[in-house]
Structure formats: C-alpha cells, structure tokens
Amino acid sequence: MAIAKRSREAFGGPGIEPRWTHGDKEGIGTSYSASSRLWFTMWHGYVTEVYYPTVDFPQIRDLQCLMTDGATFFHDELRCREYRIERLDNMLGYAVESDDPDGRYILRKQVIADPHLPCLLQHTRVQRGPASVETDFARLKLYVLCAPHLELGGWGNNAYVMHVAGRDVLVAHKGNTWLAMMATQPFSRCSVGYVGTSDGWTDLADGFQMDWEFDRATDGNVALIGEIPISETQEFTVGVAFGNRLSRALTTLFQSLTVPFDAQRARAREQWSRADRSLLPLHEQSQDGGNLYRASHQVLLAHEDKTYQGAMIASLSIPWGEAKSDGDGLGGYHLVWVRDLVQAATALLAAGNRQTPLRSLIYLAINQLPDGGFPQNFWIDGRPYWKGIQLDEVAFPILLAHRLWREQALEEFDPYPMVLAAAGFLVRCGPATEEERWEEISGYSPSTLAVSIAALICAANFARDRRDEETAALLEEHADFLESHIENWAVTNNGTLVPGILRHFVRINPAQVGDPLPNRGVDEAIVTLNNRAPWQRVHFPAREIIDGGFLDFVRYGVRRADDPIIVDSLRVVDAVLKVDTPYGRVWRRYNHDSYGQRSDGGPFEKFGHGAGWPLLTGERGHYELAAGRDVTSYIRWLEGFATPTGLLPEQVWDRADWPEQHLCLGRPTGASVPLVWAHSEYIKLLRSARDGRVFDFIPEVAARYGSARRSRCQLEVWSLHSPSLSARPGCTLRILANSPFRLRWSLDGWRAHHDTPAKSTELGFHYVDIRLPEQAREPVQFTLYWPETDRWEGRNFSVVIAAE
After folding, report:
1. 138, 478, 518, 607: which has the highest count of C-beta atoms within 10 A?
2. C-beta of residue 6 within 8 angstroms of C-beta of residue 215
3. Catalytic (active-site) positions
4. Closest by alpha carbon to 368, among 401, 412, 403?
C-alpha cells in the first residue's frame, strides 16, 4: 500500500507561472507497441514534454539530471554542460553524453519508452572526468528533477513523497492522471516543492546543497526531486510512469524497472525493426544512405495515436513553448490537422505502408462533421480546437480515399459516403475559403483551388464507378467552373515584384465568405497580413504578395509544368522568397511573412520574422520532377536541413549566423521540430524520384485539364454563399442553394417570368439551370421561394450578361 508522508508541507505556493519548453526538439520517441501509450521529446540533451495516454496530451515539462559537489558548483542540463546526442540504432531512442566543462565528470544517458507499458526509462551512468580526482568524484551528488504539467498544464498540480513497497517514490497527481517516479537505485533523499520558491532546483542553486525535504506541495506549479548517492552506484535507471489511478501508475513503475534496461532496449529495437519490414527500398534515391528515409518513416509512425489509431498529429512539439504558459500552449502542434494527416498518410503509402493510411482514412470518416466538412484542427478524440473552415482540409480526405482506391488498399471499407459529403461541402461552401493553408486569410487561394478541383474530379470517379452518372457530371461541371476561373481569380495582370513580369499567381485574392464572386480579377484587391508587429505595415495590394501554393496546380495535374504563368510565377517566387544556405536551398512561405523567430532572436510572440520552410524545398522538388528535371539536389538539401538525429524542422534561420541567440543560417529556429508535413514531403519526393512521376499526380485530372486545355467552361454558378455578378451569353447559369426552392426568373426585365422547381442532388444541394441565349443582353433577374417554410426570399437578384 502507498503511504503518503504528511509531515512537511512545502512553502511558496503556487509557484511561478509555468512555461512549456522549446519547440525545436532534438528527439521524439515512443515504442512501436500500441500497449505503451507514452511518447517523449528531447531538447538540449534532456527529456522535455512527455505525452500520455494519447499523443495530444503532454504531461510533464521536463526531466533533468542535476549535479553538485555540495560546495563549489551546481549544474543543470540546460546551462552548464557540453553534450552530444544521437539516435539509437533502428529505433526512436536516444543516447546522450554530456561533459562537465571543468572535466570533473561525464554523464551518459540512454532514453527509451518501455516497449509495453506507459513508462519512460532513462538509463544513467556517471563516470569520472579527465580532470577528476577520486576524492572530488566521491563528493559528487546527482539529483533527478521532474516538473509535472499534468493534464495539459503546470497550474493545479499536486506532488507527494510516498512510501511504497519499502521504497520512497515521488508522485504527482491532477484530475484523473497520476505520475510516479523512482530509480533502480533508491533515492537517498526526496523532496517536492513549488517551482521558483521551494523546489529542488531553487534549493540547490542557492548554496549547492539540498537543504529542504518536503513531502507535500499541492495545487500549484510543482517539481519533484530525488537524490542518487553516486558514492554507492554510478549506474542506474530512472522510471517515470503514468496511470489513471495511483495504483496503476505505481504498478507500471515497479514492473517496468524490474526488467533490466538492456532487455527493454533490445525489445524496443526489435519492435521498430518489424515496422520497417514493409518499407520500399527508397533509400536508393537518397543521398545519405537512407538515414533520413528510415528516420522519417519512424517519425511519421510515432505521431499516430495508439488509442485512436489512424489519428496523426502535426508535431510532438509546442513551437516557441518556452514563451507559452498553460493557455498559450494548450494546443501547440500536438493536434490533428487534416492537411498534415493526409500528407503523412500519403507519404506512408508512398513508402509501402498500406495499413496506417487506411486507418487514417477511417478515422477521418468517423470524425467528419454532419455537413461534410472538417474542423480546422481537433483533439485526437474529435473535439474541435480551432474552428475555422479550410476547404483544402475538406478536399484532402477525398484525395486519400481515391489514392487508396486506385491502390486497391481499401479492403472492406467503403469511403463513398464520406467522399460524397465532403464533395458536396466543397460545392456548397466554396470557392472562397475561410482560411487558406497558412491559416490566416479568407479568399481565393491557388493551392486551395488546386486541391478542390482535384478532389471534385476524384469524387466524380467514385460516383461514376457507382453508376451515378448524374452526380459524376455535377461534380465534373463544378470542377470545370472552378478551373475556368483560375486565372481570373488568382493571377495578377499588373505584377510589380519583378520588372517585366506582369502576369503571375498571387498568394491569395482576399474575399469574405458571402462576397460576390470577383469579376475584376486581383489587381484592385487589398490583402491584410497577420502576425505583423505594431509598427509594421499590414495592408498590401494582393498583387504584391506571392507564395508557392500555385505549384499544387502542377502537382495534381490541373496545369502543366510548362504553363507560361506557372513558369513566370516561379521566376517571381525565386526572386522574392528563395534563400540559399550552407545546407541547401529553401523558400519562405510568402513575402512579408511574420510568423517566425523575432528579429531580435527571441521567440515568436504575436509577431516575428517568417524564415525558410524545408517542406517548400520538397514541394519545389516535385515541380522540378514534373518539369522533367533532376531532383537529386532537392533530396540532398532536405537531408541537409535535418538534425543529426533525423528530424526535419518547420523553419530554418534565413539570415546570417547569430551565435549569441543560437541561430545559424540553415539550421532550425525555435519553431516546431519535427514537422510531420516536412517528413512527408521528403518521403514522397524519394518515391516520386524512383517512379519518375510525382506521386500525388492524378492522371484523371491531367487528362481533363493538364494535357490539352479544355474549351472554356459553359457554366456559371450563383449561390447565396458566393453570388456571381455576371455570366456570358450562351452559357448555363446554375442557381444553387442548400434547401429545396422554386426559382422565379426573367430574362426580359420581368415582362415575362418562369417558375422552375429546383432539382435535388445526392450532394446536399438543390439547383436550377438557366440556359442563356447567345443573343441575351438584359440581366437575369430572379428570386427564390422556400417551400419548406412557405416564404419568398423577399428580395430580387440580378446577374449581368457580359461577353467577357
């Protein structure tokens, strides 16, 4: 039975405001077994956030080894040691060696997750340093310090020293989560306290000795500390176990530490070796012998949850977490973004893994919203976090389903209901997206349009396979409508970024959902950029802001690689966004991007400087392959951006080295490391290079649009959501609504009118088609009657007839 000591209460509660840790991780780890529901991260050579029982729930801030001789020095793992970290062979575990700068000791650690239980294992060995003498080494004391942030936060934690089965165990508790920590070598002394006032770090930093031994610290930002007597043993294993009850956490802890560490490590390695057996030999296309390929495969698998299988988060990190408190860092990147999940699932499919992508598709189908859409991002259990609407995130599951279908990898799962619902959402709620892929601006985004067009054609393929020709035709017609407006909605005719290039794609043509469809192009639009500093300009002509999202038109087959506007747009991108670093070439997201490290080197806090994104190097590599060029350099550049432990960053510093801020040109900033999307781009680029064709390329899309441009679409679409202001003579004007209606319309100024009931569809909308005569000149005027509520719309609408 666990007996809590109650004699000594820590002072200074609730402690200082809690913070998370840096987002640029050096390691992420878990076991391959689904029974071990624990994930860990590492930064600067020590353990940072540990996640349990799902991949989206961080439970501790960090775990450090502290060293002191009790008289002359005190070292923690953040400030006082030189260190080296490397990935253990063929698994997501890490070896760290850190040295005392004065040569008194060497600390060696190996960190893994228990292969079967939710317990972190850290094997530790302390050796005499080259400058140590025996008497000095004997005086050294090592302390294990753990800072719980249970149930997503540092506030409200409770810490205790308990006596269990003859041993003192450090315990933390909050809500329904318990943490228990001990070592194979019994702690000689233990304490708990409030961070910044009575915790063990504060105690040792003031005088180099452990003066306080508290048994309780409740309802605050707390820390646990245990002393290991180095004079008795220089080698031991620390365990940090979790459970939804105290007895479960304690049982897990004792059982895990009973098995020798070498046996645990061997078992964990064997599990990961099984995961690699299905890998395609894409290492042949790599430039580093397959090191990053194998690491990327394991990184993607590690981001899948083990309870909600198929769910994959964007990153086991909180970007710039050192500046974020409980509320600020609540979501971090440890959430599901549909975009990132589909990129990862598709990359795993490219690597030869067919099971995980199917699990992901099923997970998405289960978590699709009733209207066919998906939340902007959400927790593993499906609860929305941010609630914006991003049309590409509605389209991507269709692309995943289509790819699995073409690969004959759906087994007995039928994705058609999900596909139909998502396609209907794209028709009803587009073409302007509430947010584009950078999650900042609403309007007409090239990348969103590309993914939406491709998804509608894929959905049409599903419908035709079901012999539903009417639904297939509706989807294709709507895709044609979007495709026919690409240049009008997303291309400037008066570009100013590069002299001599007037026509190029823009980042976005801004619009609010519900605005009329743009009929004057981009050149008069003004875009408002987010994340700008208070003294910086925020409003720009849309024609002056560019990103590389238009490359998705080539990626999916909507446009050819040699399309003149694509080629000219790339010239602008390279002139404005390209950065050459010692490790490779990288591109910024868009000009005037302010999501990134601050210009003074500090963490992003509401504004900063957007740096280079390695995933964009992967995107450009896919374009170069589509254009028939060699992509070896792009593969090598991506490998160059990886950390020594095989992690690809979200952003790399794009300015001169700044040693004082630990920022180096081409190396990670404080943004997220790793980024699942970046690893996905790398794997897909390897597969594309092997196949000689872009892996995401969709032949049916290219056959319709890319190889030989179709004649101009003869359809214009009007809806209350996105009303069209004009239509061409001879085209079909489609009036579309989400509910049944009857259309009263006139082509001659109401001298005569027609009443036409709307046709229903399998896509959740209703429509009336009006064929406009070639000689039509007067506006189409109409109103709607809603039979379900027995009412007229109460206003008339008008669409101008214009030749162009």
Report:
1. 478
2. yes
3. 436, 439
4. 401
Cis peptide before 431 (omega within 30 of 0): yes
Cα-based torsion angle of the residue sequence 357, 362, 367, 371 in order, rounded to the nearest 10 degrees: 110
Taking the CA atoms of 395, 402, 691 and 336 in sequence, report the sign of the dihedral they define.
Answer: positive
Residue 703 falls in which region: left (phi positive, over 0), alpha (psi -120 to 50) or beta = alpha
Of 623, 512, 511, nearest in space to 571 by CA: 623
Q: What is the pLDDT of residue 711?
A: 58
Instruction: Give the span between the Cα atoms of 271 and 291, in whole angstroms.
Output: 18
> Running DSSP on this structure, what letter comes out for residue 762?
T
For residue 804, what pLDDT is reported? 64
The per-residue pLDDT for 755 is 97
3-state SS assignment for residue 37: coil
**228 CB contacts (<8 Å, ≥6 apart)?**
124, 141, 142, 143, 144, 183, 185, 187, 188, 236
Q: Do residues 250 and 322 touch, judged by C-beta distance below 8 A?
A: no
Three-state SS for 791?
Answer: strand
Q: What is the pLDDT of residue 5?
A: 65
CA distance 436 to 748: 40
Q: Please state at what angle helix 291-302 crosses helix 676-691, rounded to 10 degrees.
A: 130
Q: Which amino acid is at 212?
A: W
Contact 528, 538 (CB under 8 A): yes
The pLDDT assigned to 130 comes to 87
Which pLDDT value is given to residue 1? 57
Q: Which residue has the tokens 């002359």?
A: 72
pLDDT of residue 776: 83
Helix 355-367 vs helix 391-406: angle between axes, to the nearest 10 degrees? 140
For 660, phi then psi, to 5°, come to: -60, -30
Please name the helix (run of DSSP H) or strand (run of DSSP E) that holds residue 28, with its range, or none.
strand 27-30
| CA–CA dist 262, 395 (Å, integer) | 47
Find, among 514, 625, 489, the residue nearest to 561 by Cα.
Answer: 625
- Nearest CA among 286, 250, 399 for reference residue 632: 286
Helix ranges restricted to H, 193-337 = 200-205, 246-258, 261-275, 291-302
User: What contacts 786, CB < 8 A, 6 or more positions away?
Assistant: 739, 740, 741, 792, 793
d(CA 106, CA 584): 35
Which pLDDT does position 51 carry in this prediction?
98
For 567, list phi and psi in degrees, rounded to 5. Answer: -60, -45
Give the position of tokens 């009007």: 718
Strand 732-737 to 715-719 pairing: parallel
Q: How many helices (H) and strands (E) does the chain have?
A: 18, 37
The structure tokens listed for 207 are 């005088």
Q: How many residues does the chain have?
A: 804
The kind and range of the H/E element at 222 are strand 222-228
| Structure tokens given for 168 | 């003192």
704: which DSSP letter? Answer: I
Q: How many angstroms separate the CA atoms of 771 and 238, rounded?
A: 75
Q: Specify the pLDDT at position 521.
A: 80
Peptide bond into 614 cis (omega under 30): no
What is the Cα–Cα distance from 254 to 237, expressed in whole angstroms? 12
Look up tokens 């041993």; give the residue. Answer: 167
- Which residues of the chain carry a pLDDT beneath 70? 1-2, 4-6, 135, 329, 707-712, 804
